[in-house]
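RECORD TYPE: protein structure
NAME: AbiJ-NTD3 domain-containing protein
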Amino acid sequence: MDDQDLDRYLGAAYVLLTQEGHLEAASLLRTSTAKAVIDYYDNLNGGTNFYKLILEVPAGAFAGIRKKQEELQRVMTEAVRTSIPPDGQDYYHVHLTPTLEPGFNWREEPSEVLSRTIRRNIFDGLRMEQVNVFGELGDPEFLSRIFELRRLPSTDSRFKDAAGDIYQHRINNDDWDQYWIFDDDRFALLDGPADTFLRFLCEIVHPVVRPDRAETEVIVQHFNDQLRRAGWELVEEERIAGRPRYVPQQVAHGGREAIERAKAVADFLEAGAMARQIERMQNAISADPEVAIGAAKDFVETCCKTILDRLGVTLGMV
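PREDICTED:
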């Protein structure tokens, strides 16, 4: 049986499974990679070929079907045997097996997740520097850019939702600590989804919230010092009224190693200009590669000039 015939028979089996209500089995058959191999040969009744129809399923999806693997294989086998025309004494049996998705390097150590420790370090840094998290906006206005406050519960029985109690305790009375948001379980910034936490950080340095560019740069550097340990960073995506708007971005592994080596050189030479060039490279690696390349060239030039200067060698002497 050639691949074209096999694909046609599997298509018929897919229709049967769908019509019979076996939708999960049908979906697996449609999305998996199939190959037929001879399992064994039996001389009984003039010779019988027993084929194993291997369906390769991405390992992540396979993990969710392991407990029902045998039942899925049974109904899929019945559909396949019905769909393939009789050819002597050939028999087919479906076998589901996990496979790695293309491009996934399981030997490469995964990036550290956005752990509670990293998140707490970021929040502690904001406290230590006494940063007004909500900037030019009031707490309710800031948080409504991320959360639906009227759908979150109130911690004060006098109010029906989070919008009411936040306004009462931060605007009317101002009797909550200014960093109350860090530990409020309704927003789960310490233990909740990473994308929500990253969006929260981006709002802190949004031009509408924090129009002072110098202050924003300092805060972003603090964020990135922690985030890069987990394979993330905030990078400039666009400018609003001449001020950068940041978005989260995963750091390319190779790029991160190169940046860390460059930082070590800059620290050793105690060169402030080199540190600024490194920051430019970090912010532009994915957003604007040409700028990153230019910054890298400037970095190498500054490094060489600094070394020659330390050695007391002028450029004219080289």
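COMMENT: The radius of gyration is 30 Å.
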